[in-house]
Structure formats: structure tokens, C-alpha cells
């Protein structure tokens, strides 16, 4: 008797790759790596920046929110300029997403919403994250998608 096997619905590679960016050197390398991966796989690239959450005082909170918006605009400008340097036939479909909030929870929510097949993030450059755990380590431990951590 021949045993029936279930047919797997899926693809041979990722359709959506999510990369977290914050302007740090490692996050920009992660974005470049994710872009190359998306190009080779024919996937859409989603780049996400999560702006810091407000402060205890209204004045400081407003200033922090404004800096976050300026950082987001600068990151999107840098990404657009980088994409424009790539020959037209080698460009990938991409989106830039920004929201206020914690990067770890924001990336999880966004990855689930866009049905990301993979997440790429830069290794933390902060010494304290060796003790408390970086966003990258926490994403790996979440275990919902393959996570690539770029040094």
C-alpha cells in the first residue's frame, strides 16, 4: 500500500524579507544584505524603523518624537539614494515602514502582519545588550521565522 503524503503549499524561497534599521552601521549592513537576498530570491524587501517612545515630560516627549520623525525621514532618504545607485534591472521591490514603539515588539507585529518569511537585523553595538539581550537575540529566541543577524 502506498502512503499518501501531504502537499506543501509554499515557495522555493522567501516572498517577503523584513529588515530592521536604526541608522547604525550594523543595521545598514543588514539592510544591504537583506536587499541582496531579496534580489537573488525575487522577494519584496520591507525595511522598518521604530521611533523611540515619548518621555515623562510633554516637552521632552515632543522633542523625542520630532527627532524620531527626522531620523525616519533621513533613513528613508539614505535608502532611496542607495537604491538609485543600483542598476535598474537589479533593483528590488521595497517598502519603508516607520512607527513609534519598541523595535522588538514592533518587528514581531510587523513580521506577522506582512507575513514575512525571514527577518534580517544588525547585531547590537551596545555593550549593555550582552547582559540584557539585544533585539536580535530576542528575535532569534522568538522562533517564528528564520532570523539572520549581520555583524
Provide a compact summary of the structure.
This protein has helices at about 25-40, 60-85, 105-115, 130, 135-140, and strands at about 15-20, 45-50, 95-100, 120, 145-150.
Please characterize this protein's 3D structure.
This protein has 151 residues and is of the alpha/beta class. The protein has one domain (16-150): Rossmann fold, CATH 3.40.50.620. It has helices at 25-41, 58-84, 103-114, 129-132, 135-142; strands at 16-20, 44-51, 94-100, 118-122, 147-150. It has a 5-stranded parallel sheet with strand order 3-2-1-4-5, sandwiched between helices. Strand 2 (44-51), helix 2 (58-84) and strand 3 form a beta-alpha-beta unit. Helix 3 (103-114) packs across helix 5. The longest helix has 27 residues, at 58-84. It starts with 15 loop residues before the first strand and ends with a strand. The relative contact order is 0.21. The model has no long low-confidence stretch (mean pLDDT 86). Residues 17-151 form the UspA domain. It holds the Pfam family Usp. InterPro entries: Rossmann-like_a/b/a_fold (IPR014729), Universal_stress_UspA (IPR006015), UspA (IPR006016). Belongs to the universal stress protein A family.
